[in-house]
Specification:
The active site is at 126, 144. By secondary structure, the protein is of the alpha+beta class. It has helices at 2-8, 12-36, 70-92, 99-121, 142-161; strands spanning 42-45, 49-56, 124-132, 135-136. Helix 2 (12-36) packs across helix 4, helix 3 runs antiparallel to helix 4 (99-121) and helix 4 packs antiparallel against helix 5 (142-161).
Length: 175
């Protein structure tokens, strides 16, 4: 089965994971627009989690959301450049690695999912709201979850599994 290795082997399997994140992100955003754009929020776990609809014209946590429109292209260019860097990074990783490329694929999928919105709409659609009492975490989406989980995985990799001083530490993530 050498042909299947061409489409599913390293690094393609990681690009497929990134594509799955993009597809899930876009599908859930379409669902959220249909369900919540003109309706009320839906409580999932009362007092903690709800689905709602929000448009984010800025970056993470609505950073620069009121900047006048230039941020759409600025953040789009940053996301595109970052995606190119991550794509090349994934391509160059050794095939034996698992944790790091998985993390990068999640980040890449999240970046591309939000880039899709930013280019087509000029804003990012968010719909997951976590809150407690009067405290509200910024509304987010599946792409944001991919980016956050991937970033956390990279931090874990750096702190616990990274090669140190030329000697390779025991790396269960590569098995």
């Amino acid at each position: 089965m050498p042909n299947s290795n061409l489409l599913l082997g390293h690094p393609w399997r990681w690009y497929w994971l990134a594509l799955a994140v993009v597809a899930l992100d876009v599908a859930t955003k379409v669902w959220a627009v249909d369900m919540f754009m003109y309706g009320s929020a839906q409580q999932i776990i009362p007092g903690f989690l709800q689905f709602t609809y929000a448009e984010n014209y800025g970056a993470a946590f609505s950073f620069l959301a009121d900047a006048g429109g230039w941020q759409r292209w600025f953040f789009g260019i940053i996301a595109l450049g970052f995606s190119v860097v991550v794509t090349i990074w994934l391509w160059r990783l050794p095939a034996r690695k698992r944790w790091e490329p998985c993390a990068l694929a999640l980040i890449l999928g999240g970046a591309l999912g939000n880039l899709w919105d930013r280019i087509l709409l000029g804003y990012v659609r968010d719909f997951i709201s976590v809150y407690y009492g009067n405290w509200h975490f910024p509304v987010f989406n599946v792409a944001d979850m991919g980016i956050s989980i991937g970033a956390a995985m990279l931090v874990i990799e750096l702190l616990f599994f990274a090669e140190k001083g030329g000697d390779k530490a025991k790396n269960n993530a590569e098995v």
